[in-house]
Model the fold of this input.
Amino acid sequence: MRIHNLYEDDDGQSHFRDIEVEWVEEGRGGQLSARLPATGIIFRKVPPTYELDWHSAPRRQYIINLDAGVQITASDGESRIIAAGEVILVEDISGKGHLSKAIDSQIRHCIFVPID
Done:
């Protein structure tokens, strides 16, 4: 299972990389990863007109898109569509940040899972 990761380098520029989930346990219900830290859960509804100029993430957090995707552009120019059902770990909490834009003119429901 792949997780997108948006992080910043020492110069404050944001970049993408992929994180591969490591399975550490297997049982009748399937495979499990190690338990990861989290400090809460936030539900969010995003309008279909959402387009946010350069901004940093408010905190380190996982974002899980439930029913629609979002286009995110890192400050290095790479752009990714984070589709419905995909997970991104955002860690660019300072520096230039990233651009975010709704796709397909759809309302997006997502879950934020803060880890700080």
